[in-house]
Amino acid sequence: MKKILIATEKPFAPAAVDGIKNVFAEAGYEVTLLEKYTDPADLLKAVADVDGLIIRSDKVTADVIKAAAKLKIVVRAGAGYDNVDLEACTAKGIVAMNTPGQNSNAVAELAFGMMLYNARNAFNGTSGNELRDKKIGIHAYGNVGKFVANIAKGFGMHVYAHDPFVKKEEIDGDEVIPVDTVEELYETCQYISLHIPANEKTKKSIGYDLLKTMPKGGTLVNTARKEVIDEEGLLEIMAERDDIKYLSDLAPDCKDEMLEKYAGRVVFTAKKMGAQTSEANINAGLAAAKQIVKFLEEGDNTFQVNR
Ligand code: 3PG
Q: What pLDDT band is residue 162 in, cutting at 50, 70 and 90?
């Protein structure tokens, strides 16, 4: 009997876990659940005899891969797979996949939740600002970026996007204004919503030089990754311009300093929660489970990311 491990330090909603278990029950697989673990050693132990693994932001390091003697496939139930050591997977012939698009709406809605919360002064009863007629720049026009664009249009915002990997015609076709350079996007838009992945090219790529060019009230909204921010540069511009704001679902290392110095200009969630909705968990979790069955039964590697 094939064995599957669902390892989620940050658990899926119960309905998603039930759905995943049903998919595997139908396939005749055995499922083990490892939730809320705090010691990576627990994951090392739990992967020892599994054929398939479902994770979220859980770190699948070379050690995890080494400990997983029978592992054939790992699926990151979500978009970003910077938490998976792809080289280690490839070296052992393990297929790594993600489930693109499945949790994107949840992330986009959170971006607006943080924007409204901040624009309305944390709902403290004082007079705030509206989003209508403001310019929003979408930095990377992928699955989440597209949802952000649609919601922004509903708010009556002017929507711009920069993405060197998406054709201008496609952006234009969505009634979003394509922008040629990152610099132009930041110079133009009061709001920037970040959707770039964390990789060697993007790490620490957003900092002082870009943020200093933002219009008055410049607000950076980060539902992407902590690593793409140059925190020194962020602190520098926060100190230099008292109109700049940073709203993030990924608490920076300098979180305490920022909260202390810049209350009212920063918003941080308690825990990364962009994809923390029942709907997103069901979409991404079920997609992951079905992808595993399709791969193990039919060799379907449609969503493989380590080719
Ligand atoms: C993703 O890459 O899919 C999102 O960042 C969500 O991550 P999470 O599953 O850890 O909430």
A: very high
CATH code, domain with 211: 3.40.50.720
The verdict on the CB of residue 103 being under 6 Å from ligand 1 is yes
Residue 293 pLDDT: 98
- Domain contains 305: no
Tell me which of 6, 56, 202 to substitute to probe ligand 1's pocket, judged by most ligand atoms within 8 Å of the beta carbon: 56
Residue from 60, 154, 143 nearest 105 by CA: 143
* Average of per-residue pLDDT values in the chain: 98
- CA–centroid distance, residue 79 to ligand 1 (Å): 6
Do 283 and 157 reside in the same domain of the chain?
no
